[in-house]
Design goal:
Elements: H1 2-25, H2 35-65, H3 80-91, H4 100-128, H5 135-165, H6 172-183, H7 192-220
Length: 231
């Protein structure tokens, strides 16, 4: 639990904060960022979030898989901070960034497919349906964004988990070849259903909360309900 909370505090806070800041920078009173630009902004935000959250992500994967290891190989981290200290002391600071390449790539894909697709779906719903900017619109756009994000990120999730839980280093190319030989193409979507069961509701709740948070913030700053209905 502590590793998951630390990951959210580092990874999610960074990517959402940077994305909203970049989106505001490229938004004017008369124009909003195009969808390709939103993808670029989300990719940049995701890359930075992936780097910031990598240490907590490594800890999260290790602590989740610890019980499956033989008793003599278990790391038995007491909590996230204990894990950070022990990893740095026992394996060096570089161990905190093990798998940072696949993890950052996954963060780029996740943020682009989640945040940019949410804004894109929201714009389509507002433009082509009678729905207004309300909870129904937010729910529909976030549900679709969760589906897209799960599908796009599934292959990288498989790679990330296997790299971070490995006891020995293995090149990415060699890992891909070995997985393909053993499991075929199906490895890319292994665990898709449980991933969507986790990520789908998470995406919906996240954006519902974010939209209400932004609405309250605008009201507190006297910007009104209609100002800032950005894509």
């Amino acid at each position: 639990l502590s590793a998951s909370l630390l990951r959210q505090l580092t990874y999610s806070t960074t990517r959402f904060g940077v994305y909203e800041e970049l989106k505001s920078t490229f938004t004017t009173p008369t124009t909003t960022p195009s969808f390709p630009l939103l993808i670029a902004l989300a990719s940049t935000s995701g890359f930075l979030g992936g780097i910031a959250g990598n240490p907590a992500d490594v800890l999260n994967v290790r602590m989740q898989h610890d019980a499956a290891l033989p008793f003599t190989q278990r790391r038995n981290y007491a909590h996230a901070l204990d894990g950070l200290v022990r990893m740095t002391r026992e394996e060096g600071w570089r161990s905190l960034f093990r798998g940072v390449g696949p993890n950052s790539m996954r963060a780029v894909l996740m943020t682009a497919s989640q945040l940019a697709s949410y804004d894109g779906f929201k714009a389509l719903i507002l433009s082509h349906t009678p729905l207004s900017d309300n909870l129904t619109t937010h729910f529909s756009a976030s549900f679709l964004a969760g589906f897209v994000a799960t599908t796009i990120c599934s292959p990288v999730d498989v790679i990330k988990t296997r790299v971070m839980s490995a006891k020995e280093r293995e090149g990415l190319g060699r890992l891909l070849v070995r997985i393909y030989r053993v499991e075929g193409v199906g490895w890319m979507f292994r665990g898709w259903v449980p991933s969507f069961v986790r990520l789908g509701p998470h995406t919906v709740v996240t954006f519902l909360f974010l939209e209400q948070h932004k609405r309250v913030w605008r009201m507190l700053h006297g910007e009104g309900e209609n100002l800032g209905e950005k894509v």
